[in-house]
Amino acid sequence: MMKWITIIIGVTAMAIGLNSLLEPYSLVTGGATGIAVIVQSLWDIPMSVTNLAINIPLLAAAFKMAGFRFVKDTLYSTLLLSLALEITRYIPVIQTDTILASLFGGILTGIGLGLVFRAGATTGGSDLAAKLINKLYPQLSVARIMLVLDIAIIAGGAFILGTSPAMYAVVAVYVSSKMIDVILGGVDYAKAVFIISEKSEAIGRLIITEIKRGATYIQCRGLYTSREKGLLYVVVSARQISQLKTLAESVDPKAFMIINDVREIRGDFR
C-alpha cells in the first residue's frame, strides 16, 4: 500500500511541475512528457492524452516481448501520471520568470520521479523505450539509449519552440537529476577519505579521539619512492570533512588525501 501512496504522490508532484511551470514556459525536458509539452504548445492537445498515446504502443511492445510482469508497475504508473496530468491541468499557471520556472519545475519533477523510482516503478517514456531497444540491441546500454532519446527530444523542442526555452530546459533537467539523487540517496551524504602518510597511525589515533570515527589502517609502500607508508580509510559525515582535513594536515602537511562522496551506508554509522 505504501508503495502506491508513494507513486501517487510522485506522479502528482510531476504533474504539477509540468502543468504549472514547465509547459507554460515551453520547457521541454525529455521523455514522453517532453514530447507532450511540444504537442500541447503547438496544438493544445492535453499532455495526459499525448502521454498515453506515446506509452500505450511501448507498453504493448513490452508486454509482447517480456510479459505482463515486466510492464505491470510501469502500466499503472503511466495511467496514474496521465490521470494526475489531467486533474492538475486546471491548477492556475504560476506566474514567474523562466529561470524560476525551470528551477522549481525541475525540483517538482525531480521529487516526483525520485519518489516513483524509489517505489520501484517508472513512468514509461524514454525509460521504457530504452529498455525495449536494449532487448533488441544488447550491446547498447539502457543509460546511453535514454541519453540519446532525451537529447533528441530536447533538440526537437529547441528547433520547434526556440533555443532560449531549450537552454532553460537544460537547467530544469539538471535540477531534476539532482533532486532524484536526493530522494534516492538522501541529503546528508557521507564522505569516504583515503589518507596516505608516513604518519598515518598518528592521524588515525586523532581521528578516533577527536572526530569519534573508526578507521582502517593498511601498511603499504610507495612505488615511486619505495618508502613504507600507511593508508587510512575512514568514512565521515559531510559536516566533519573540514575538521578531518585540518586534523590530518596538522599532523602531516604533506599527507595525500582522496575524498569521495558516499551515497549509501549499511551498518552502524552514527
What does this structure look like?
- The chain is of the alpha+beta class.
- The chain folds into two domains: 2-185, no CATH class; 190-262, Alpha-Beta Plaits (2-Layer Sandwich), CATH 3.30.70.
- The protein contains ten helices and four strands; from the N terminus they run ααααααααβαββαβ.
- It has helices at residues 2-22, 31-43, 47-66, 68-88, 98-118, 126-136, 142-161, 163-185, 200-211, 241-251; strands at residues 190-197, 216-221, 228-237, 256-262.
- A four-stranded antiparallel sheet has the order 2-3-1-4, with helices on one face.
- A hairpin with a 6-residue loop joins strand 2 (216-221) and strand 3 (228-237).
- Helix 1 (2-22) runs antiparallel to helix 5, helix 7 packs antiparallel against helix 8 (163-185) and helix 9 runs antiparallel to helix 10.
- The longest helix is centred in the middle third of the chain and has 23 residues, at 163-185.
- It starts with a helix and ends in an 8-residue tail after the last strand.
Overall helicity: 55-70%
Alpha-carbon Rg, integer: 24 Å
The helix tally amounts to 10
The largest beta-sheet arranges its strands as 2-3-1-4
Domains (count): 2
The share of residues in extended strands comes to 5-15%
Residue-averaged pLDDT, rounded? 88
**Poorly predicted residue ranges:** none
Q: Helices and strands: which structural class? A: alpha+beta
Q: Can you count the beta strands?
A: 4
* Overall shape: elongated
C-alpha end-to-end distance: 31 Å
Largest sheet: 4 strands, antiparallel
Secondary-structure element sequence?
HHHHHHHHEHEEHE
